[in-house]
Amino acid sequence: MVKRTFWIQKIHAAWKKRPVVWLSGGRRAGKTTLARMLHDAAYLNCDLPSVNRQMADPEPFYDSLKKGTVVIFDEIHRLNDPSRVLKIAADAYPNLKVLATGSSTLAATRKFRDSLTGRKQMIYLPPVLWSECMDEFGIKELDRRLLHGGLPEPLMSGKKDTSFFSEWIDSFYARDIQELFGIRNRTGFMKLLHLLMRQSGGLLDYSHLAQLSDLSRHTVKAHVEAMSIAHAVYLLSPFQGGGRREITRRPKCYCFDTGFVTFVRGWDSIREDDRGLLWEHLALDTLRTITDDRSLHYWRDKSGREIDFVIEGSRKRVDAVECKINPDDFKPSNLAVFRSLYPEGRNFVLSPNVRTLYRRRYRELEVSFISIKGLEQPDIIR
User: Fold this and answer.
1) Residue 111 pLDDT more than 60?
2) DSSP strand pairing (97-102 vs 70-74)
3) 112 burial class (0-12, 13-18, 19+ CB within 10 angstroms)?
4) Paired residues of 348 in beta bridges
5) What digits encode the pLDDT tens for the residues 121-151?
6) Alpha-helix residue ranges (DSSP H) falling in the chain
7) Could you tell me the sign of the dihedral formed by the alpha carbons of 231, 236, 237, 240, in that order?
């Protein structure tokens, strides 16, 4: 079993702030395996009817535990009243450490009548990060990570198994979408999901998607929201700094895992032209891990000039991140336009072909060329 040290440390750090940690992520991302890596924990599988009956009155269970015990509620949304179970733990048993897992955010089910404000820390578990591939999974080939994706099972497989991705999509609809959101139009939903995976990384156009999926625009928006809550897609909002010619409303939509992008496109290998977009997905996973989602954006103007990722800081400071497979392909023209509007902040080019951070000057611009592992270092982007 691969020991995912980074995430174990992240969970323990979250417990120092709040008694309850909500660990969410896409189906089969490895949440259960990660939870079971926590030593001396009381593990409860909330899919079991016996656990549901036991948690109808959780006090005797909590009373039986020693101070400092780790309690794991796996797939906690299966309980009849999960927010009550977590609220009692946080308020009446603050010396316990609670980890609750689920394939979606708290907004996914009406069972969570209480948002647990002030009691929880949220952690999103993405597909296996590229730095984890190299450090813990022993995978050095970038193309393998791009093609197979980052869900542990297909990632560790020697050959890409398309049946895994077909079964995942069927299970996602049946277990996450139908049960949590009550969406019954399977054909329309599946067509839309495949379209979003195929167009991953592009600007979201609800009207065009409605035409292609034979759904109404309102239904498309509702379905996309459900997919976002259930972590199948991620909506990256545009940076709105006040420029007159900026894109200010249309988000970019990313599939949560590169394996599904290559699956719906029918790719059995990675070509030279494929790497750039897929590398952008891996960069996004890392940026979501080390920054607050609310501060993460892209920037684009109406002339089509674009910055891949923009991170808002304090006092009008805005960091810019461009993704390049080959760092020598970087051209500073888009960045120069962006910095003419927003001069404060650092500039990064993120590349898998950079080992040690180095800097270059392009007239008045200073640009740092950096690897994903370098980007994860403290105080680089925070």
Assistant:
1) no
2) parallel
3) buried
4) 321, 368
5) 999 999 999 999 999 999 999 999 999 999 9
6) 5-15, 31-35, 49-54, 59-63, 82-92, 130-135, 142-148, 152-156, 162-171, 179-181, 186-198, 206-213, 217-229, 258-264, 275-290, 333-341, 372-375
7) positive
Residue 379 identity (one-letter amino acid): D
**Torsion angle of C-alpha atoms 133, 135, 138, 140, degrees rounded to 10:** 60
Please state, in angstroms and rounded to a whole number, the distance separating the CA atoms of residues 40 and 71.
Answer: 9
Per-residue tokens: 137: 């999974």
Give dist(CA 205, CA 217) in Å, integer: 10
Q: How far apart are CA 158 and CA 328, in angstroms?
A: 32
Cβ atoms of 196 and 202 within 8 Å: the answer is no
Rounded-to-integer distance, Cα 382 and Cα 321, Å = 13
What is the Cα–Cα distance from 311 to 263, expressed in whole angstroms?
Answer: 30
Q: How far apart are CA 142 and CA 283, in angstroms?
A: 13
**pTM listed for this prediction:** 0.94
Q: Are strands 318-323 and 347-350 parallel, antiparallel or unpaired?
A: parallel
Query: Is the separation of the CB atoms in 224 and 195 below 8 Å?
Result: no
Which amino acid makes up residue 194?
Answer: H
Question: What one-letter code names the amino acid at 342?
Answer: Y
* Locus of tokens 């909590």: 62
Tens digits of per-residue pLDDT, 310-355? 999 887 899 999 999 999 999 999 999 999 999 999 999 999 999 9
DSSP states of 86-117:
HHHHHHH-TTSEEEEEESS-GGG-TT-----T
